[in-house]
Amino acid sequence: MMRLIALAAAVLLVILPAVADNYVLRVATTMMMYSALALGWNFIGGFAGYPSFATAAFFGLGAYASGVLQTKGVPMPAAWALGGAIVALFAAALGRAILHLRGHYFAIASLVVAEVLREITNSATDLTGGGMGLNLPVLSLDVTAQARLFYYAMFAAAAAALGTTALVAGNRLGFGLRCIQQNEDAAIMLGINTLRYKVIAFILSAVFPGVCGGIYASWVNYIDPTDVYDVLLSVKPIVMVLLGGVGTVMGGVYGAVLFLLMEELVWRNLLQFHAGLLGIIVVALVLFLPHGLRGAGWAKLRWRQRTGEAAP
C-alpha cells in the first residue's frame, strides 16, 4: 500500500509542471529544495548523530562556486555539477579538521564555517562581487519554461538525495553511522573506522545542499552573502528532520512538506518572530517529540498494542 502511495506521489510530482501555475511551481520547487537540504543534513545529524550547523556554508559555497563559473562562461548544468564537486572537496577537508570534536563543540565549530565563508566572499570583490552580490547570466526562456526547468532541477536533486539516503540506510555505511550515533567508543572497539565513516557522511551532507545552492543561484539570477549564507538555512533542515523523524529515510521529505505548509500558511504573517518561532519549535521537538511526528504515531500505536486499548 505504501509503495503504491509513493509511486502515485512520484507520478504526480513528475507531471505537476504540466498542470500547475507558476505560483504552485515556485512553492513546489522550494519544497524540493527543502527536502534535499533536510535529507542532506540527515546523513550527519540523523544517522551519525553529529549536530551539524554547516548546511548554510555548503549551500552558500555551492551557490557562489556555480555562480562564478557561470559568469566565466561555464554552461549552467556543468556549473551545478562542478559546484557540488567543489563543496564535496571542501567538506572532506573540513570534516577531517573538525570531526574529532563531539557534541556542542562540533556544533559550534560547524556553525562558524558559514560566517568565515561569508567574510571571505565579502572580501573577494573581484571574483564574487563582495557585498554588492553577484548577477548571473539570464536565460533566454519565458517565465513558465524557467519555472519548469528549475522545478525539475530541484526535483532531481531531491530524488538523488532520497535515493542515496535509502541506499545508505540499508548498507554497511548506514549500520556504521548508527553505531557511531549509539556509542562511538564502542564502534571503534568493533573495528569501525569512525573518522572515515563520519567524513563520508559529512560529504554527503554537503553535496546536496551545494548542488541546491547552485540551482538556487541560477533560479533567482542574483545572490549575495547575506542571502545564501543565512543561518536559517542551517536551522531549517534540522527542524524539518526533527518534524519528520531523525535518522529515517523519508523523515526529511515529510518534515519538508510540513515545514513548508507552516511557512506558507502561518509564518508569512509572523516575519518579525520567524527566527524566534523556529527556536521554540526546535526546543519543543527535542523535548516532546524526539523521533518526530511519525515516531509519535508509532509510539502511540505500540502503546495501544501493549495495553490493549482500542483505536478511536
Brief characterization of the structure:
With 312 residues, the chain is mainly alpha-helical.
Describe the structure.
- By secondary structure, the chain is mainly alpha-helical.
- It has helices at about 1-20, 20-45, 55-70, 75-100, 105-125, 125-130, 145-170, 170-180, 185-190, 195-220, 225-230, 230-245, 250-265, 275-290, 290-305; strands at about 135, 220-225.
- The protein has one domain (about 1-230).
- It has 15 helices and two strands.
- Strands 1-2 form a two-stranded antiparallel ribbon.
- Helix 4 packs antiparallel against helix 10 (about 195-220).
- The longest helix is centred in the middle third of the chain and has 27 residues, at about 145-170.
Overall morphology: globular
Helix content: over 70%
Oligomer: single chain
Biggest sheet features:
2 strands, antiparallel
End-to-end gap: 22 Å
Give the strand tally.
Answer: 2
Tally the structural domains: 1
Global Rg: 20 Å
How many helices in DSSP terms? 15
Broad structural category = mainly alpha
Question: What is the ordering of alpha helices and beta strands?
Answer: HHHHHHEHHHHEHHHHH
Mean pLDDT: 88
Identify the strand order in the major beta sheet.
Answer: 1-2
Point out poorly predicted stretches.
297-303
Proportion of β residues?
under 5%
